[in-house]
Amino acid sequence: MRIEVLVPNLPESVSDATLLDWHHQAGERVNKDAKLIDLETDKVILEVPVPETGLLQEIRRGKGDIVASGDVIAVIDTEAEAEAAPGITGLPAATQTAPTAPPEPPPEEAVIPPAQATATAAYSQPISPTVRRLLREHQLEPTDIPVAGRITKQDVLNFLEQRAASVATESQPAAATPPSFQSAPSPTGRASDRRVPMTRIRARIAERMQEAQRSTATLTTFNEVNLKKIFELRNAHRALFEKTHGVKLGLMSFFVKASVEALKRFPIVNASVEGQEIVYHDYYDIGIAVTTERGLVVPVLRDADTLGYAEIEKAINDYSIRGRDGKLSFEELSGGTFTITNGGIFGSMLSTPILNPPQSAILGMHAINERPVVEDGQIVIRPIIYLALSYDHRIIDGREAVSFLFTVKELLEDPTRLLLRV
């Protein structure tokens, strides 16, 4: 039985996706629920599993192709798998590989040499006219491109770039070999440019950043916080907390708790603008910015006011791990009424965070450093962090923004107030 592998239904806000890496090649035996291919959207990476155990007979779409919900990307033959159950070694030679699709006819104006036409016909996947033209111009055969499945234009360009770099390196004396991070020299002797397409997530980040700058009246206010008492509290209870809850007591749970309490006192900071209306949110869904290789994502802590310190720490750890692996769901990345971002983990001393529309405010954390401060007329050394609150000045006045940030400061400098809510 032939089963078509379809692109899963995408959320209404996502129109299409990009195919990333195939984890199996045509002709391979695949098991049900194994990872078949990854799809990249403008928010997350989705895994498409194998629907049924069988022989991966066809791969119809290649790496880098844009697909929509319901598109057929592969075909699996479950009956061929049943015959191959003893280990596939007993199959006749003709059934050990997937059927080859007939090559796509070349454009009328293109003439393919006989040798290349033979190689093309022998290749297991159809080749687009654009790819054929590139192969012909650079005197390549389809089998020269080391990829599984259908060859794309980018595959050929990557191969040409690697070959050029290899030739340039081999032509130089060993002592003059450039470091691997440098681009290959151009014919003029200068380092050449490298053009790399944005990932969908990076392109979406760029779009949202431009939207935030264009559609809001952003202003930023700053303050500093003495974390001495929080450090003392953590040091006193860290071991017992970890033993009891199975998670380390970090700083983010304190910042989430302080932010939620401040949002309750200044509801406008938790609001958003829709047309000519201000929408007040009577719930506290806090976005936590997570850095991944593909860009920044913001999973959301739902109803953060109902979560304990351990629940917050566990959720943030889970989001960080799955964010780096591209395993966050659309639901976890949607919504949010307020965001916290921590540039301090990279050493940032001070910055102005950009709003995460349609939210009206974002809290930026920075590096914690020991600094001299004055207490009771004495200069002492304390762990100090600078905080930045960027806000939409269209609906949040300076008085409210400054008061909000000062409330966060007070709660963090005396964490017992978080417990007593005073």
Give the full name of the CATH homologous superfamily of the largest domain: Chloramphenicol acetyltransferase-like domain
**What fold name goes in the CATH topology slot of the largest domain?**
Chloramphenicol Acetyltransferase
Q: What is the end-to-end distance?
A: 67 Å
The domain count comes to: 3
The CATH architecture of the largest domain: 2-Layer Sandwich
Quick summary of this structure?
The protein is an alpha+beta fold.
Structure description:
This protein is of the alpha+beta class and 422 residues long. It has 3 domains: 2-95, RNA polymerase II/Efflux pump adaptor protein, barrel-sandwich hybrid domain (OB fold (Dihydrolipoamide Acetyltransferase, E2P), Beta Barrel), CATH 2.40.50.100; 114-197, no CATH class; 201-420, 2-Layer Sandwich (Chloramphenicol Acetyltransferase), CATH 3.30.559.10. It is built from 11 helices and 19 strands. Helix 7 (252-265) packs across helix 8 (309-324). It starts with a strand and ends with a helix.
Keywords:
422 residues, alpha+beta, OB fold (Dihydrolipoamide Acetyltransferase, E2P), Chloramphenicol Acetyltransferase, 3 domains, four-stranded antiparallel β-sheet, 11 helices, elongated
Layout of helices and strands:
Blueprint: E1 2-6, E2 17-22, E3 29-30, E4 35-40, E5 45-49, E6 54-59, E7 66-67, E8 72-77, H1 78-83, H2 114-122, H3 129-137, H4 153-170, H5 200-215, E9 218-226, H6 228-245, H7 252-265, E10 272-274, E11 277-279, E12 286-288, E13 290-292, E14 295-297, E15 300-301, H8 309-324, H9 330-333, E16 338-342, E17 361-365, E18 368-375, E19 378-392, H10 398-413, H11 416-420
Parallel strand pairs: 12-16, 16-17
Antiparallel strand pairs: 1-8, 2-4, 2-7, 3-6, 4-5, 6-8, 9-19, 10-11, 12-15, 13-14, 17-19, 18-19
Helix pairs in contact: 7-8, 7-10
